[in-house]
TrEMBL record:
Entry protein name: Cupin-like domain-containing protein
Limits of the Cupin-like domain: 60-273
Pfam families: Cupin_8 (PF13621)
PANTHER family: HYPOXIA-INDUCIBLE FACTOR 1 ALPHA INHIBITOR-RELATED, HYPOXIA-INDUCIBLE FACTOR 1-ALPHA INHIBITOR
Biological classification of the source: Eukaryota, Sar, Stramenopiles, Ochrophyta, Bacillariophyta
InterPro entries: Cupin_8
Amino acid sequence: FFMPLSNNNSKLANILYRDPQSLPSTQEHSPIAEISAKDYSENSSTLPHLLLQEISNDWSEPVVIRGIFRKSNAVKMWYKKQYLSKDLIDTTTTTTHTQVYQVDDLIQDNKIRIMDNEIGRSIIAGVEETLVRRDLDLNKIWQGFGTSKYHQFLLSVSRRQQTQQENHPTTTNNTWQNHWRYNFYAQIHGTEKWYFLSPKQSSLLMPTRCNTNNGNLGKKQNDILKSSITTQASDDDEMHDYLPLRYVDLKPGDLLYIPEWQWFSSSSRSRGKKNSLLINLRMNDGIDVWNMM
């Protein structure tokens, strides 16, 4: 994998730098592999993770399972007011509220205390885990998913709302990221567009940029496991045309698998005041393939 460099490492950065505009501007963006929930359940037999392993080319490429959670209570009920707030009413959560990232009243309640540090994350995590286990049938992914038999996972709910400027949709996330352990995402409400870039093409993302979440790379130990960089192009849309990307449009009920260290960028496609709710099934130890065999 490739990690972005800080601006201080200019000599090495110049060696690794690769101008994306040197590529043809007619790059074809192809969709990622997908399988329907019906085909997945019918062909997976008793070892569905082996089917997912095959479709993802031995866990190396992103895959979407369409509609696997479409009939779940999460998809049917989470967008309704008061449904989630009654479970979260006595919890504390970390939230961000900016022009392009807003928390809707689907979850936010005047009795929920808002904090700007990590304390809230640990308190609300247990409540979210209860909600997900109750309202999603995780065994649809494979039998025992999320249990100690295979692996444990942490849960986070992404509450993102798209805004508009001069009738032009803006993204809720204008950085490219790659992660370790963030392998599965379930789309619950709204729609999102995801783009993917192979780690082999990392130099196209201008690695001289700082980590936008935590400052320069290496300032925190977490930076080794979570990377977020911005592009140097003056216009993201302009750079977008040159990159050899793959993409997927996530709809409610879809499950997305992302390989380790895969670069991705996502944006909400939900219009107006409609939120995009996304669940990240984050695993403590990544995909423990060997223990699943």
